[in-house]
Structures are given as C-alpha cells and as structure tokens.
Design goal:
By secondary structure, this protein is of the alpha/beta class. The protein folds into three domains: about 10-95, Alpha-helical ferredoxin (Fumarate Reductase Iron-sulfur Protein, Chain B, domain 2, Orthogonal Bundle), CATH 1.10.1060.10; about 165-290, Rossmann fold; about 295-425, 3-Layer(aba) Sandwich (Rossmann fold). Helix content is about 55%, strand content about 5%. It has 24 helices and nine strands. Helix 11 (about 190-200) packs across helix 24 (about 410-425), helix 20 (about 325-335) runs parallel beside helix 24 (about 410-425) and helix 22 (about 360-375) packs across helix 23. It binds iron/sulfur cluster (2 copies).
C-alpha cells in the first residue's frame, strides 16, 4: 500500500475526543445501533483511512455512504467537531479512489450529477415520467426505477422567476436578491410564487439574476468539490452584479451550502474574500420573514386543523435555525400547533440520499411518518424540497396521503388568503 494522500484537516479531525455524546443524535445509529454507522465511528474510519491503517475497501465506503450528511452530530457535539467538512473531504477521496458498481456510477454521475442541477435537462427527463404515469406504464419499470419515480410529484410545476419583481409602489422599502435554484424551479413553482408574493408584501423588490446556476449542494455533499466550486464562482459573480445586501433562499439544503461558500473557496485566493462577502448576505426565508409577522398580518390567521413542523436538517443543524419557522407557524396556527417528536431527526431525504440509499431512507421515512401520525397533525410544514417529496412519499406508503406536506411559504400564503376571504365575508380571522 503506498503512502496515502492526506485529505483531512488535522485540526478538524483531532477535535473529536471520542466522547460519544453525538451517538443518540445520529439517525443511522438510531436505526442500526452499529458504531460504524455513528459519527464517532465514521470519524475513526476517516482517520484510519488517512493514516493508512485502513484501505479504501467496500465495507469502509459503505459506512461513509450510509451517512446522511444531516450534521445532527455537529449540533450534539460539545467539542465543536466540523463533521460536515470531514465528510466532504472523505467523500471526495472516495470519488477519486473507489470504483463503484455500474448502477451506482450511473445514478451518481449521470442521473444525479448531469440532470438534477440543470432545470432544462430535468424537465426533459421528467417528460417520459408524466407520459408513463398517464398511460399506466410505470408498472413495467424495474423496481429501482419505480422507487425513484415514486418520489417525484405527480405534476411538474415549473416557474420562470423574473429577473426583477418590484414591490407595490406604495409599500416599497428596499430590494433583496433571490436564489431560484434548480429543483425548485422545475417542481416547486407554487412555493416560489408564494415566496415572491410574501417578499413583495413585505415591501421588497426581488432581484433574481438570470446568470445564476445550481448552488452546488448536491456536488458538495457527494464530494464533487471541484464542480461545487465552479457553481459557487458563477453564483457569486451573478449576485455581485445584482448589488443587493441580502440574498434570500427558500430551500434549506441550498441555503446551508450558500452560507458555506466562504469555506468552499477558502483556498482560492482570487475568490475567498468574494465568497465570504457573498455568504454573509445569505438568509433563509424564515430567518428574514420572522420580523415581518406583524407587517404581513400573520398573527391569528388560523390554520386548517392541527399543524406540525419538521426541521429540515440543513436548516436546524448547519444553520442553527429552529425558532424562526416555529414562530411563524405558531403566529398563524396558535393552539393548532403541535410539536413533532424527533422533529430534527432526518426524514431520509438528505439531498439525493433517498435515491442512492433507498433502504435506509425508507426506514427513516417510515419513522418520520409514524411520528407525524402520532402528532395528530393534518398539515406538516417544512422548508426543504427534498423533505417535502420524501415525507409525502412516506405518508402515502403509510396510507395517510390526506395529511398535507407544505413548504412554509405556501403555508403562510394560504393562511393569508384564507384570512382575507374570511374578512371579505365579514367572519373575521379563523
Ligand atoms: S464528534 Fe463530538 S460528540 Fe461525537 S464523539 Fe467526537 S467529540 Fe464526541
Ligand atoms: S451527518 Fe447525520 S448520519 Fe452522518 S454521522 Fe452525523 S448525525 Fe450521523
């Protein structure tokens, strides 16, 4: 065995003191009870790989692949271990040095790597799915493809976000940038329309540069760091031209990556400072909206039955945003709000994890559905497109398709519309 290439930042790797306090927060450890499927075990494996004590074998890669990258371990860790950075560096090594099965290579390099980040390609790829569904052809697909299709919404809902969307003249208070994303513009048009409506209603013009590209989250999380950096540079340049002080994002997974461009490009002298400036402007929609509860008139709008909230991992853990979405939902729903057991345990979506690791994703989806049904909620609110698709699929499998799963922007917009209708009828808030 030759001298292994050093890939971990020693300072980050040695920060782990192996105390095990993160184990109970790790979804894969909760499911398997296997130390190798825990943060502590995986950090041990990463260090052993770096030192050459272990080789890049199938079993080691399996334990790294099974990690969701949810970063719940970072929240639990008292030593401040930057697990996400260790994982990304290790996955980059796996990508370079490990040969995967033909199916896994096709899935990761082609279906995920060459389709999802590009909206036009994604729309073309979804076209045969719509036809197949309409004519009942899905049953002829092999099982693994049927499982993938099952996760997709029944209707594609594309949206073309304008480069500039002004707030009503009388209300105008400023302007913000908006990251439209890739999956969101193809499958979540209603979410984007609701988001833009809320931002305009707060008195802000929206600038969404046409030259922006995918945020690079899927690449960064799977260890394809070179392409994640390429996307990051394009987005930084696009938003520099937009000349805004705040850059909004309504997808938790993307937001976490955008806030970490500074880290992603820290070794690139020409871009490091520009990346840090970009990241400092990024705000999740909920952390930005929470100060506008009164202005929007959200308080007491009322909910359509019991509501609960699922923490998207990349909002709760890397971004540490848990209160803002709850305050927004509680303002609307009041006593109808139900706290969800294990709200911040990953639902199994985790970017493209439910495509690459369907078995563990399915177990976590079932766990999430059980908790939702136990809460008695009729609506589940969350902040990430992947979570929405995964939780809907899990509830459908549990025979509970009637429980709605909504992005928070749609939930808030719907509440405002209901309240407006009630006021028109003279009924007052629900
Ligand atoms: S990652 Fe943190 S919590 Fe987990 S074992 Fe290491 S030091 Fe302890
Ligand atoms: S990122 Fe999530 S799945 Fe991976 S080790 Fe940490 S807690 Fe466990």
């Amino acid at each position: 065995m030759g001298q292994p290439e050093p890939f971990l930042d020693d300072r980050k790797a040695l920060a782990c003191v192996h105390c095990g306090l993160c184990l109970g927060a790790c979804p894969t450890y909760l499911e398997t009870g296997n130390e190798n499927e825990s943060p502590r075990g995986r950090i041990y494996l990463m260090k052993a790989l770096q030192s050459g004590r272990l080789s890049m074998n199938d079993s080691l890669v399996r334990h790294i692949d099974l990690c969701l990258g949810c970063r719940a371990c970072e929240t639990a860790c008292p030593s401040g271990v930057e697990y996400g950075a260790l994982l990304e560096a290790t996955r980059e090594q796996v990508g370079r040095r490990h040969r995967r099965s033909i199916y896994q290579s096709w899935l990761r390099r082609f279906a995920i790597g060459q389709v999802i980040p590009f909206p036009v390609r994604m729309r073309l790829a979804l076209w045969p799915v719509s036809i197949g569904r309409r004519f009942g052809l899905m049953r002829f697909l092999p099982r693994f493809l049927r499982d993938i299709v099952e996760l997709l919404p029944t209707e594609v809902d594309p949206v073309s976000v304008p480069e500039f969307l002004p707030a009503p003249e009388a209300e105008r208070r400023g302007r913000v940038g908006f990251v439209s994303g890739c999956v969101m513009t193809v499958l979540f048009g209603a979410t984007h329309r609701a988001t833009l409506g809320l931002v305009n209603a707060c008195g802000y013009d929206v600038v969404s540069p046409l030259t922006q590209v995918c945020c690079g989250a899927l690449d960064a999380h799977s260890g394809n760091l070179d392409r994640a950096r390429e996307f990051a540079r394009k987005n930084i340049a696009a938003f520099e031209e937009a000349n805004v002080d705040v850059i909004l994002i309504n997808a938790a997974g993307c937001g976490s990556t955008l806030k970490e461009y500074g880290h992603l490009l820290e070794a690139d002298e020409a871009w490091a400072e520009r990346a840090r400036r970009f990241s400092a402007k990024v705000r999740d929609l909920t952390e930005w909206l929470v100060d506008s509860i009164e202005r929007l008139g959200l308080a007491g709008c009322g909910a359509d039955g019991p509501v609960t909230y699922h923490d998207a991992c990349h909002l709760a853990h890397p971004q540490k945003i848990t209160e803002a979405p709850r305050r927004l939902i509680r303002a609307v729903a009041g006593d109808h709000y139900r706290e969800l057991a294990e709200a911040d345990v990953c639902c199994g979506s985790a970017g493209s994890y439910n495509l690459t690791e369907p078995e563990m994703a399915g177990r976590l989806g079932t766990r999430k559905s059980r908790n939702i049904l136990h809460s008695g909620a009729r609506t589940v609110v969350t902040t990430n497109p992947g979570c929405i698709l995964q939780i809907r699929a899990g509830l459908k499998q549990a025979g509970a398709s009637e429980v709605r799963v909504l992005h928070i922007a749609e939930f808030l917009e719907e509440a405002l519309q209901r309240s407006a209708k009630n006021s028109e009828r003279g009924a007052g808030p629900a």
